Amino acid sequence: MQIFILEPQADTSVRLSYNWEADGIYVKKVVYDNDAIWLGDFNGDVYIHDISTGKTTLVDDMPVGGLGIEDMMKDSKGAIWACGNPNVGVIRYSKPGIKYFNDHPAITGSTTLFENESGQILAAGNTNGIVFNFNEETDNFDSLLITDQQGNRLTSLIVNDITVYKGNVYLATNEGVYYYADNQVKGALAVSQLRLDNFTKIESKAICVDADGNFWIANNFGLLYLNNKGETTFYDRTQGLPSKIIKERGLLLDLNQKLWIATEKGLSYIKRPSQLIKKAKEPILKTIRIDNKRINYNSTSNDNIYTAPDSYSDKNMELEFQSDIYPKQSLEYHYILTSEDTALDYLSKSPLFTSYNLPIGN
Fold first, then answer.
1. CB atoms < 10 A from the CB of 21, how many?
2. In what order do the strands lie in the sheet containing 246-253?
3. How far apart are CA 182 and CA 148, in angstroms?
4. Among 101, 176, 181, 243, which is 20 to 30 Å from 222 by CA?
5. Quick check: 244 and 221 in contact, CB under 8 A?
6. Residues 218, 205: contact at Cβ < 8 Å?
């Protein structure tokens, strides 16, 4: 397995500064620490690779196994943290030595770690409806139950990723994104759900927020952008992603605000994410079929307004749209009949919209 260190450059490019062949180590997580690289593998083992000497040392051989090291991080005090599932639990590597936080069965399901703006270490994962907060006084983790604003426990939530922004902790879960004030450190966490249009209830696998307060959220359909005005834009393979499937905790913003995206089929990065947020042109109304008559409309108007004949007898009307942005096979459409529907329907590959209950006569 190849390990690379890529250094962002001032001209928005990246430079390969280090390349190492990690023979026999099936790496799952990597943390850079001064002149060393910490590695977590699929067996739950942790290694440290010295860049200056090229020597790799096994730091921790987990006897209980599991599904490997799911997440690693370096905290503000210089300690390295790792967690895994289902048997690894949370591990801290610091100068006093190695400490395992796996005495409680719940914490052994942790798959993600994060340090919030207050310097508190958070852990969460496959333990439904619980976030763990590190307590420095006891040198152990406290469990915080996730509830809604009415105090009802949300026991079905599984946390895939964590980020923080302006005093709030954001949880990317199997049921969307939730957030709470990071001053909640004991007892229950009263969370609210982040509104994401049609993706509000869809599983979120990774989340990060840039310096301007814009959120990037990954799901099984692609990449969702939520700007600081509450507007959303969606990206998938038609915008150049190698795959629409982005891995858990697969988003990273570097110090130059480049967005790195770990997909199922390779790594991508966006040089200047803010420049990609452009409103797509509205689809053009091409043809209309009513009363078994086909009308070639080919509207070039932004309004796409068509005035029907004074009277018609058929309850069915078919509208065909086209777009000059992408090939037809790459397009997906939402439709809404404003007089009948209350929300957009599901995404459709078809450029045809058919109404079967058109009021007769006008």
1. 9
2. 246-253, 259-263, 266-270
3. 15
4. 181
5. yes
6. yes
Q: What is the largest CA-CA distance in the chain?
A: 85
pTM: 0.70
**Count of CA atoms in the C-beta half-sphere (13 A) of 221:** 12
Residue 23 token pair: 């023979």
Q: What is the Cα 58 distance to its own chain's centre? A: 32
- For the stretch 253-294, pLDDT in tens is 887 778 889 888 888 887 655 545 445 566 777 888 877 777
Q: Which among 106, 50, 76 is positioned nearest to 90, based on CA atoms?
A: 106
The DSSP call for residue 68 is -
pLDDT in tens, 176-216: 999 999 877 677 899 999 999 888 999 999 999 988 889 99
Q: Which two three-digit tokens encode residue 237?
A: 């393979």
The pair of three-digit structure tokens given for residue 43, joined into one six-digit string: 């067996």
Report the Cα 287 to chain-centroid distance in Å.
38
Q: Which residues are within 8 A (CB) of 24 and not within 5 positions of it... i.e. 6 or more apart?
A: none
What radius of gyration do the chain's Cα atoms show? Answer: 25
| Start-to-end C-alpha separation, the chain | 67
CA 14 to chain centre: 23
Q: In what order do the strands lie in the sheet with 56-60?
A: 27-33, 36-41, 46-50, 56-60
Q: Distance (Å, rounded) from C-alpha 128 to C-alpha 309?
A: 58
